[in-house]
Amino acid sequence: MGIYILRRLALIIPTLIGIMLLNFVIVQAAPGGPIEQMIAEMEGHGGSALARASGGDTGAEVSSASGDRRGSRGIPDEMLKEIEVMYGFDKPAYERFFKMLKDYATFNFGDSFFRDKSVTELILDKMPVSISLGLWSTLIIYFISIPLGIRKAVSDGSRFDVWSSSAIVIGYAIPGFLFAILLIVLFAGGSYFDWFPLRGLTSSGFDQLNWYQKAGDYLWHLVLPVTANVIGGFATLTLLTKNSFLDEIGKHYVVTARAKGLDANQVLYGHVFRNAMLIVIASLPGVLVSLFFTGSLLIEVIFSLDGLGLLGFEAALNRDYPVIFGTLFIFTLMGLALKLISDITYVLVDPRIDFESREGA
């Protein structure tokens, strides 16, 4: 196992470089950029890349082939050159890329182009929101899906199994953002009830509350976004649990345990549970990556939650390159690390798994 871990650790570096290079090329080829953003702000057209995409006049023409920029409203060439130097675009693309890799090797992600903070500070500021959504969503999904999957396996083919499967498939088919809008319409003052807050994770007077009132206010704000975030997350884990238990229930050791006179609960939780839960437990790192970093963007936007998803979305719109590449580097590194942890978890919960022999085969 040690050799396998070393190989995986060695592969992290070229994988990171490859992902960063691919995204660097894509971003450089995309029209617009931070310089055009600055020119638009100087000319009073606003700095939104979304406005540029909708056809607004930015005051600058961009040639994606040559990278030439020309001010259309009398901005002197000298000022354009100063802006290029300020953003580092006076250097060729390959030189900027290698400098970025050198800085990232020491976890120096630089400062945001359009926010008066470093990339590290921005990520740390937004992290609590994404952790709140991801952690609570993961806990709820596991606490519901595992018992439900076990019940479905025990009662395979029954009416409960059929109608619960139908409900799970319907929930999986509903996009999370669409369900979020439905929750707002029904329960956040949209058209019917005004039971839950529409935005943020805390109320305006949060600092004046005592500890249990703060806890209640925090959970009150989380109800709708977490519900919308997990609506489609039950299907995969529930069916995975069910199929894993069904596979174990049909094995010879279960027949032997029943022949010894053990009751159903002793067989299920004393013998089947440990073996059937191996794949479910080992899938936890992958679920965390999905819920923490990739699954909450639209939920954050809809519920006005200032988290990592919204940070990355705004950075992409505004061409805030340090934030784009800094967050990409951190999330990719964490994803690769969690994938390795997932493989190690498989071995810890089932020593029969040997990745080294598989690689050598």
Reconstruct the topology from this structure:
Layout: H1 2-29, H2 34-42, H3 49-53, E1 60-62, E2 69-71, H4 77-87, H5 93-105, H6 119-154, H7 159-173, H8 176-187, H9 211-230, H10 234-249, H11 252-259, H12 264-276, H13 278-282, H14 284-294, H15 297-302, H16 308-318, H17 321-349, H18 355-360
Helix pairs in contact: 1-17, 2-4, 6-9, 6-10, 6-14, 6-17, 8-9, 10-12, 11-12, 14-17, 16-17
Describe the protein in words.
The chain is mainly alpha-helical and 361 residues long. It has two domains: 2-118, no CATH class; 120-360, MetI-like (MetI-like fold, Orthogonal Bundle). The chain has 18 helices and two strands. It has helices at residues 2-29, 34-42, 49-53, 77-87, 93-105, 119-154, 159-173, 176-187, 211-230, 234-249, 252-259, 264-276, 278-282, 284-294, 297-302, 308-318, 321-349, 355-360; strands spanning 60-62, 69-71. Strands 1-2 form a two-stranded antiparallel ribbon. α6 (119-154) packs across α10, α8 crosses α9 (211-230) and α16 (308-318) runs antiparallel to α17. The longest helix is centred in the middle third of the chain and has 36 residues, at 119-154. The two termini are 15 Å apart. The model is unreliable at 47-73 (pLDDT under 50).
Q: Which second-level CATH architecture of the largest domain applies?
A: Orthogonal Bundle
Structural class: mainly alpha
Globally, the shape reads globular
**What number is the mean pLDDT?**
77
Query: Which runs of at least 5 residues are low in confidence (pLDDT < 50)?
Result: 47-73
Number of distinct helices:
18
Any idea what the radius of gyration is?
26 Å
Quote the CATH topology of the largest domain. MetI-like fold
By CATH reckoning, the class of the largest domain would read Mainly Alpha
Level of helix content? over 70%
CATH superfamily of the largest domain: MetI-like
Q: Proportion of β residues?
A: under 5%
Terminal residue distance: 15 Å
- Tally the structural domains: 2
What is the strand arrangement across the widest sheet? 1-2
Say how many strands there are: 2
Q: Give helix and strand order, one letter per element, not per position.
A: HHHEEHHHHHHHHHHHHHHH
Give a quick account of the main beta sheet: strands, pairing sense, barrel closure. 2 strands, antiparallel
